[in-house]
Amino acid sequence: METDLSNMIPLYAGSSQKYDTVCIFGTGDFGRSLGCKMMQCGYSVVFGSRNPQASSLLPKGAEVLSHREAAQKASIIILAIHRDHYEFLTGLTDVLEGKVLVDVSNNLKINQYPESNAEFLAELIPKAEVVKAFNTVSAWALQSGTLDASRQVFICGNDHKSKEMVVDIVRALGLTPLDQGTLLASKEVENYPLQLFPMWRLPMYIATGLTVCIFLYCLLTDVIYTYVSDGRDISFRIAISIPNKVFPIVSLILLGLVYLPGLIASILQLYRGTKYSRFPNWLDHWMLCRKQLGLVALAFAFLHVLYTLIIPTRYYVRWHRGNSIINQIKKNETSPFETKSAWRTDSYMALGMLGFLFYVILGITSLPSVSNVVNWREFRFVQSKLGYLTLLLCTGHTLIFGWNKFLDVSRYRWYLPLPYMLSLVIPCIVLVIKFVLIMPCVDKTITQIRQGWERNPKSAKQSTFKNGKIAV
């Protein structure tokens, strides 16, 4: 859907601060939006079009000429056109010589061509200076005032002076330039907008796999077992009861998986006696997506809280409670109050609420707007110290909830362990390993290694040289 910018007047059209003239090839959505934004910031913009007379949607004050005439008026030319239409530029080689060509194009899929669009353009017009920029900013973001999510502009090019000229434009538009180096990085810059949550894939795969497996496990040990052994249909549990078992189990397992890779890394450093050796690729990737794992775990914890809050309103719960009271009245008896049960119930609820509180704090601290206003020590304290405290509280919540149920053989349906026991395996392993690693004798060695100490410097250097890279 095309946006009509013809009635839009630049905010600073009368400003005394004027910049150089910039040429834009292309009158599509992005070209028009970028041109309007540049005019608002004091630039003089001339559009190059194959049909200047038909360009009626451009902002007021913009000059529209043919490609050749427009290129002659500016030293910077922004190409807001697709790679498929670059061929006409070969007929403008004499005019484009010495000009700065800013390539803003993107492809339809990752690695669509052997080389990047910017490198292809540099080969097509060898006497021009090509700079890759603006491909990570959308036309909508330019029209709506460049929101925070779209403020960063990746820039790469072989000529430093040309990049500085583009950097000045980016800053004048209120955006943040990020120099990515030479055009060798342009392919990665072009692939960036096409990526669909790359760091979320592994956490989502793990969460989905765990959810399906644990749901089927609970379905087997609850609904199917009851129907086979007693002939009772309790399939209604599939809507609330079973999900309210699955969510906390998956959440606790994911929280344990957040801190497990860091412990594995510490063990590897202890074993190798150096920090100058690369971790395995799977461990590197695992550690990079810990934030996403934690946020997914927090989402499952939220679901557990919401499902727990609606339990008193369920028909089955209200029926069971009313039926229990009626039976007591008929039998003229009351259930004695058990202080031990009251302590257990209150304890696991208190631990659950405290654990969820710290869960939320961890999630809030991971937000860029919050993490940017705390120093490294504060961020590490929250994510590490409070993170392990959260894991300890949630594990304690589950242990007290289960209490001594694992000792009751009758609860083991088809000799399978209780579902809550599955959630305790990884968190307990993490807490035990962490307890060992924080012992003074072990912690001192790990601290020395992370400060640069090596048990066998020569072998470490040989191993690093063999790997071809140094991992700090």
From TrEMBL:
GO terms for molecular function: cupric reductase (NADH) activity; ferric-chelate reductase (NADPH) activity; metal ion binding. It is a multi-pass membrane protein. Its main location: membrane. Its cofactor is heme b; FAD. Gene3D superfamilies: NAD(P)-binding Rossmann-like Domain. InterPro entries: Fe3_Rdtase_TM_dom, NAD(P)-bd_dom_sf, P5C_Rdtase_cat_N, STEAP_metalloreductase. The chain crosses the membrane at residues 204-227, 247-271, 292-311, 348-374, 386-406, 418-442. The keyword Nucleus does not apply. One of its GO terms (cellular component) is endosome membrane. Signal peptide: none annotated. Belongs to the STEAP family. This is Metalloreductase STEAP4. It catalyses: 2 Fe(2+) + NADP(+) + H(+) = 2 Fe(3+) + NADPH; 2 Cu(+) + NADP(+) + H(+) = 2 Cu(2+) + NADPH. Residues 249-394 form the Ferric oxidoreductase domain. Residues 21-107 form the Pyrroline-5-carboxylate reductase catalytic N-terminal domain. It is found in: Endosome membrane. GO terms for biological process: copper ion import; iron ion transport. It comes from the Eukaryota. It holds the Pfam family F420_oxidored. Keywords: Copper, Endosome, FAD, Flavoprotein, Ion transport, Iron, Iron transport, Membrane, Metal-binding, Oxidoreductase, Transmembrane, Transmembrane helix, Transport.
